[in-house]
Predict the structure of Protein-tyrosine-phosphatase-like N-terminal domain-containing protein.
Amino acid sequence: MTGTVDGHQVRDPHGLHADAEDQLRQAASEVHRRVGDQYDEQAVRSAVQEAYDEITDGAKIESFLPILVARSAEQKLGQQA
């Protein structure tokens, strides 16, 4: 089950241990929902992958990874514009 917090889609806490691919898909979906009309799908996926690679190295709590990755990717895309 998903819900919305601060404009971001979040998963039910019972499903916090989703695999990395699921987290990437969730983050990319969120970014595309927010800025997809400004960037093509490949640019969004690249920004999400880059943000994920940067954030996961120091991540202590994985439950917030999709939100943090989505925010970081959106910022990266904004800097490219």
